[in-house]
Write a structure and sequence with these properties.
The protein is an all-alpha fold. The chain is built from 5 helices and no strands. It folds into 3 domains: 55 residues, no CATH class; 32 residues; 51 residues, no CATH class. Helix 4 packs antiparallel against helix 5.
Length: 138
C-alpha cells in the first residue's frame, strides 16, 4: 500500500492522503482524500486568478507586480543554482543546456520544442551509451 501511495504523483501530503484514504475506505476513500488535499489549493488559486482579472488594470496593482518581477527572477535563478549539481553531471549535459539556451534566446524556439528535443537527445544519448557499455562488458 505504501508503494502504491508513493507511486501517485505529487508531494508527501497527497501521497499520504491517498494512502490513508485507501486504508480507511478503499478506492473511494483514496479519491476523496486526494480531492480533499488538492481542491482547497485549486480553489484558492482560481479565486486569486478571478480577482486578478478584475484588478490587473489598476495602476497600483501594475506597480506592485513590476516590483515583484525582479524577486521572481531571483527565485528562479536560486532554483536553477540549486539544481545545477543534479543537472550538469557531464559535458553532454552542459552542451545540451547551451544548445537549449541558444535555441530559446537566439533562435526564439518555443520552449515546448526545446524540452522535447532535449528529452529526445537524452533518450538517444543514454541509449547509445548503454549500448557501448554492454559491448565493452562482453
Amino acid at each position: 500500500i505504501i508503494a502504491v501511495s508513493q507511486c501517485a504523483p505529487g508531494a508527501v501530503a497527497i501521497n499520504s492522503s491517498i494512502y490513508i484514504g485507501y486504508r480507511l475506505y478503499g478506492y473511494t476513500g483514496a479519491v476523496v482524500a486526494a480531492l480533499g488535499t488538492v481542491l482547497p489549493s485549486f480553489i484558492i488559486i482560481l479565486l486569486v486568478a478571478v480577482v486578478y482579472a478584475e484588478v490587473r488594470e489598476i495602476p497600483a496593482v501594475q506597480k506592485a507586480f513590476r516590483g515583484v518581477y525582479p524577486a521572481i527572477v531571483v527565485l528562479i535563478l536560486s532554483a536553477a543554482v540549486n539544481l545545477r549539481k543534479a543537472a550538469f553531471k557531464s559535458l553532454a549535459d552542459v552542451v545540451v543546456a547551451a544548445v537549449c539556451l541558444a535555441a530559446l534566446f537566439i533562435y526564439d524556439v518555443h520552449p515546448v520544442f526545446t524540452v522535447l528535443a532535449a528529452g529526445t537527445f537524452g533518450i538517444l544519448f543514454n541509449w547509445r551509451k548503454e549500448q557501448r557499455e554492454e559491448g565493452d562488458s562482453r
